[in-house]
Amino acid sequence: MTPVALSDKHKDFFERVYDVVRLIPKGRVTTYGAVARCLGAAGSARMVGWAMSASHSQKFPVPAHRVVNRNGMLTGKMHFENPGAMQELLEREGVAVKDDKVQDFKDLFWDPQSNISW
DNA sequence: CACATGACTGACT
DNA sequence: AAGTCAGCCATGT
Questions:
Q1: Is the dihedral of CA A85, A45, A73, A109 positive or negative?
Q2: Which of A21, A41, A65, A85 has the lowest tally of Cβ within 10 angstroms?
Q3: Which nucleotides of B are covered by protein (CB under 7 A)?
Q4: pLDDT above 90 (res A102)
Q5: Other CB atoms within 10 Å distance of the CB of residue A98
Q6: Closest CA to A30 of A15, A43, A40, A20
Q7: What is the DSSP letter of A64?
Q8: How far apart are CA A17 and CA A19, in angstroms?
């Protein structure tokens, strides 16, 4: 894994979210709550999702498809340019998705709090 | 300023 | 186990 140079707390909430999401290993997924908690915004999972909505405006691509709700369901698939793209991207990375839900979610779950050292 | 909405979560029934 | 309710915070009307 790559050491994270996110020690800068001067970054905005959005940027922090994007950084964390981009750090999600390929073939892994995480939840909005986990990311929010990792950023110290526990309880504000909605803000993470909100940030994801703006992720499309980011200069660098954000693997938003690796972020799902705590149920492992692709709740944000409809927000992609094309519905189904999210599932396709996940499956392409080796993540089995069925009925808009990540299979073996518990196994594929990637906890930023346990992998990132601030 | 008040109310409704949303890529969420946890507790309760 | 599945459905419902309330808390959460920013945005839009």
A1: positive
A2: A85
A3: 6-10
A4: yes
A5: 9
A6: A20
A7: G
A8: 5
**pLDDT category, A12, cuts 50, 70, 90?**
confident
Whether pLDDT at A88 is above 50: yes
Number of H helices, E strands in chain A: 6, 4
Taking the CA of residue A59 and the C1' sugar atom of nucleotide C7, their distance in angstroms comes to 34
Distance CA A88, CA A78 (A): 13
Evaluate if the CB of A43 falls below 7 Å from strand C. yes
pLDDT band at A11 (very low <50, low <70, confident <90, very high): low
A50 touches strand C (CB under 7 A): yes
The phi, psi pair for A102, rounded to 5°, reads -80, 125
Contact criterion met (CB below 8 Å) for A90 and A102: yes
CA-to-C1' span, A76 to C7 (A): 21
- Interval A11-24 mean pLDDT: 90
A46, A84 Cβ separation under 8 angstroms? no
